[in-house]
Amino acid sequence: MPASASLALPGAAPLRATDSPGYWGTVWAQLRRDPVAMAAAALLLLLVLAALLAPWLAPADPYKASMIKRLLPMGSPGHWLGTDELGRDMLTRLMFGGRLSLLMGVVPVAAAFVIGTSIGLFAGYVGGRVNMLIMRTLDIFYAFPSVLLAVAIAGALGPGLSNSLLALTLVFVPQVVRVAESVTTQVRSLDYVEAARMSGAGAFAIIRVHVLGNVLGPIFVYASGLLSVSMILASGLSFLGLGVKPPEPEWGLMLNTLRSAIYLNPWIAALPGAMIFITSVAFNVLADGVRSAMELRT
Amino acid sequence: MFFYILKRLLYAVPIALGVTLVSFMLVHLAPGDALNAIAPADAPADVIEALKSAYGLDRPLPVQYGLWLLRAVQGDLGTSIASGRAVAGEVLSAVGNTLMLAGMASLVGVLVGCVLGALAGYRSGSAVDRIATVLSVVGVSIPHYWLGLVLTIVFSITLGWLPAMGAGSDGSAAWLWDWQHLQYLVLPAATMSVIPMGIITRTVRALVSEMLNKEFVVALRARGLGEAAVFRHIAKNVAPTVMAVAGLQVGYLMGGSILVETVFSWPGTGFLLNTAIFQRDMPLLQGTILVLCMFFVALNLVVDILQPLIDPRMVRA
């Protein structure tokens, strides 16, 4: 009997290692059974689609102001979420506003994930004095409360979209580095990494093959928890006048410009903040779901 | 214990120095010149030079930093370019107002969070537990500047119960702890308290339900101790972690109060930061950030030192 003969019943497909769903497959299967997390994911998908398809779906022009239609209440004909302080359609502006607001929530976290993971991997893998130097330097940034650091950097650089993205990235990098460094330090002392090193693998190969796959999960979970923080902070910077500039539609900025209208039409003024809140809850619930799905994998 | 405290103190020194360096350097991130705020764009070269030497901006950066640090240690944070007054005085009076706000918010947030978290931990899966879970998600997800706006709409504009902004008819100059003044604190403090409330609820709930499953609790109950005595043991084990989290939160609230202060026009450090940023008043910006961060560093130090007093195991760790 040849060695390659299958143990399976005749006619059945042979069982191969690739048939197992793999780690992320298991996590996904786990997550799919979590109705709350799936609801959050569906809501996020809806918000992203509404933002992306805004130019085709929105009922009006987001920049078109009208002196005679200012601050129409919700449910007005043609403007069923009302109009803002310059007579622009609220529904349209909320849809378009999602583009910048979601972008400002995701971009700093993604950038910090890439930069922070690289620094953290390096510090954790090299260890010793270099690690000490990097981590103690980052401790200084930990002495800044994150809102203050973001406001300080954005304030010093001056208002603008790219400056607030940069400020938020700088706020998140030290936090990601700390997580990445601690998991890398744990993994690098494990026996299989030692075995790989003894078998002559280079540092780069060890990190790529053996370390990266084992540290990305925890870092990813941490970063996903930052998404809602990033959204709230980014919109907060715009709310202070440090982020996006008018007349660009963005939820934080809309909240700021509509503040002057809270005595005239309070609930219109509260709408953009409700969007930030809903999105941020969805981000957090989904992140919690992913975290527990990853813990249940074994 | 003595060496533990000494170690913590020594460890805080480089951090504090680093914070001064970052606060100082922030200003040099700024595009253009620190003089933009006071010198007209078409000022003659010799006037600019005179101004530069008056503010010490013609020296090399390390020298500027050294001089700034030396003066800062002596309590001199320079002169505000916008108002011409001493930065230290302005920051100090603003810090008092921010501390009052952040302190009140933390007190409410931590108290409610502890009670709710403990109840939820004891009654896992009950209605209280579900409320606590929802509240902790809401607490970390809500943009608090928006919550402030909504509370203003409900309690000031619609119901007319509380003032919408400010800190009293005479500003904060003559603050008294009576209702006439306290009513101005209610909405901003309530708004701010939601953040620590959510986090503390979550922490306490997780810790309490974890402790209840420990063997020592079973042993205590087996010995016939009452529920109150068991709770005392649990509280003692939970306290150090809760204190560390709460301490961090107070620091975050102080540093992050700018958003809530803007919503309620509260005369604190957030107001100063706003002025400093939009009038490009760099000495004021540097000074405010430095003082707030030093507060945060000191707070962390206090928490680090207090923790082992409750839980002596921490010194050995």
Oligomer: heterodimer
Measured by DSSP, the beta-strand proportion of chain A falls in under 5%
Major β-sheet profile of chain B: none
Figure out the total of helices of chain B: 13
Biggest interface goes to: A-B, 46 and 49 residues
Number of helices of chain A: 11
Q: How much strand of chain B?
A: under 5%
Rg of chain A computed from alpha carbons, rounded to a whole number of angstroms: 24 Å
How many beta-strand elements of chain A?
Answer: 0
Query: Unreliable runs of chain A, pLDDT <50, ≥5 residues?
Result: 1-6
- What is the first-to-last residue Cα distance of chain A? 37 Å
Gross morphology of chain B is globular
**Mean of the pLDDT scores of chain A?**
82
State the helicity of chain B in percent bands.
over 70%
| Biggest sheet character of chain A | none
Structural class of chain B: mainly alpha
Spatial shape of chain A:
globular
What is the H/E order of chain A? Answer: HHHHHHHHHHH
Distance between the termini of chain B: 12 Å
Helix content estimate of chain A: over 70%
Description of the molecule:
The complex is a heterodimer of chains A (298) and B (317). With 298 residues, chain A is an all-alpha fold. Chain A contains 11 helices and no strands. The longest helix of chain A has 38 residues, at 203-240. Chain B is an all-alpha fold. Helix content of chain B is 75%, strand content 0%. In chain B, helix 4 (87-122) runs antiparallel to helix 9 (227-255), helix 4 (87-122) packs across helix 11 and helix 11 runs antiparallel to helix 12. The longest helix of chain B has 36 residues, at 87-122. At the A-B interface, helix 5, helix 6, helix 9 and helix 11 of A face helix 1, helix 5, helix 6, helix 9 and helix 10 of B.
